[in-house]
Amino acid sequence: MENVVFLEIALVVIVSTILGWLSLLTRQPIIISYIVAGVLLGPWGLKLVTKIEFINEASNIGITLLLFLAGLSLHPRRLLELFSKTFPLTLLTSGIFALVTGGIFYTFGASILESVITGVAMMFSSTILVVKLMPTITLHQKHMGAVAIAVLIMQDIFAVLAIAFINGGSSSSVVGWITSILIGVLLTVVAILAERYIIRKIIMQVQRYNELLNMVALAWCFSLALLSEYIGMSHEIGAFIAGVALASGPLSNYLAENLKFFRDFFLVLFFFTLGAKMDFALMQTIVWPTVLLSAVLLVLKPLVYRVAFKLTNETPKFSREMGFRLGQNSEFSLIIAVLAAEKGLISAADSQLIQLVAIVTMTASSYLLVFLFPTPLGTSKPLKID
Q1: In the chain, what is the greatest distance between 2 CA atoms, to the nearest angstrom?
Q2: Which of 41, 178, 279, 340 is geometrically suited to a Cys-Cys bond with 49, CB 3.0 to 4.6 A?
Q3: pLDDT tens digits, residue range 132-151?
Q4: Can you tell me whether residue 232 is helix, strand or coil?
Q5: Can you tell me the distance from the alpha carbon of 226 to that of 115, in angstroms, rounded to the nearest whole number?
Q6: C-alpha to C-alpha distance for 258 and 174, rounded to whole angstroms
Q7: How far apart are the first and last CA of the chain?
Q8: pLDDT tens-place string over residues 67-92
Q9: CA-CA distance, 290 to 280, in Å (whole number)?
């Protein structure tokens, strides 16, 4: 069995790397290449990878690290500033996306709970895609980069709450959600105190040993994740709280950069398993809802963001570009779809629908950004800015 697992992991890495390289050469979205690798090697393709569940379990580490690093970029003081600046805009736009898409889904015959979860899954924009396709100078030194990150961080917070809601379980989800929030607040306070008086001292002692420094950060992340799961919350929430607590430390930015590779590697496995677990037998029943929802979102999101940013006194040019940059579904949509299906809150077909809409909108948005705006993968010299 060990040889089989080694062989299959090796195949995943090799094929994902080759397809990722080809996508880079042909200016295609890299994330999509990992999903295609899953389709190619999985049960509906060459059937060379059979330990899908094992790889899926390993890929959950990527989700944990994704939320840990999202929290690591949120210094508590900065978190309060972002609330005041981006909360109204992000809440308004997210509500519109949820109402419209959830309403459409309800007309297809879905239950209220399924419609709510689907609408929530459609609220977010892709942090990975927006950051990857924004020039570095814009991302770090210009107003557009700061605003984009602020909106994305607010959406990350909403996504964390959505995950807490989903982990609430059944018809008592609302009670579970409120309980999770209260426990989360208490756990956050305890985590901040523990980081300030224990973890920070350990980090300062080992800061000259890079590998041990990374291990301390990962140990802190997984400790909070395990504690969170033990007290009835999800390990993803615990990882996020661990990141927020660590964000006030002196080496938070350094740690975030160091740990990105670990996150990205396990996220490759996550996207691979999405492709491998796609049930093409369901395609006939969801193809038209997928096309409709994707088309609605690709028009609705850029338009709503454009109007919303104009209302906050941004320039028409800024508002238009930001609308397109945020005009797709998020990797959080994929996570919510998978978690909701595992909890039995939505059907396998609904989960597949949400995943396909995310893939279609991310692919289409990638093409629009590459052809219309400056990106590191620009199709012409004026648009290719790293």
Answers
A1: 61
A2: 41
A3: 777 766 554 577 877 887 78
A4: coil
A5: 31
A6: 37
A7: 44
A8: 788 778 767 676 667 667 778 899 99
A9: 13
What's at 33, amino acid-wise? S
Of 269, 315, 345, 385, nearest in space to 143 by CA: 315
Q: Is the Cβ–Cβ distance between 277 and 52 less than 8 Å?
A: yes
CA 46 to chain centre: 29
Q: Which amino acid is at 299?
A: V
Q: What tokens were used for 135?
A: 């020039």
Nearest-angstrom CA–CA distance, 164 and 188 = 15
| Number of neighbours of residue 354 by Cβ within 10 angstroms | 28
Q: In whole angstroms, what is the distance from residue 358 CA to residue 32 CA?
A: 11
Q: What is the dihedral of CA 262, 278, 16, 369, to 10 degrees?
A: -80
Q: Over the range 333-353, which residues count as b (16 or more CB within 10 Å of their CB) and which as e?
A: bbbbbbbbbeeebbeeebbbb
Is the model's pTM score more than 0.85? Answer: no
CA-closest candidate to residue 364, choices 312, 258, 293, 310: 293
Whether 259 and 69 have beta carbons less than 8 Å apart is answered as yes
Q: Which neighbouring-strand residues pair with 138?
A: none
Helix (H/G/I), strand (E/B), else coil: 375: strand
- Please tell me whether residue 137 adopts helix, strand or coil conformation: helix
Name which of 122, 151, 144, 141 is nearest 334 in CA terms: 122
Q: What is the sign of the dihedral through the CA atoms of 89, 93, 94 and 96?
A: positive
Instruction: Note the pLDDT of residue 352.
Output: 86
**Count of helix runs (H) and strand runs (E) in the chain:** 17, 0
Compute the C-alpha angle 344/350/351, nearest 5°.
70
Q: Let me know: does 32 contact 359? Beta carbons within 8 Å.
A: yes
CA–CA gap between residue 114 and residue 102 (Å, rounded) = 8
- Residue 164 neighbours by CB under 8 Å, 6+ apart: 176, 177, 180, 181, 184, 233, 234, 237
Q: Which residues of 138-153 are buried (b: 16+ CB within 10 A; e: fewer)?
A: bbeeeebbebbbbbbb
Residue type, 191: A
CA distance 294 to 287: 11
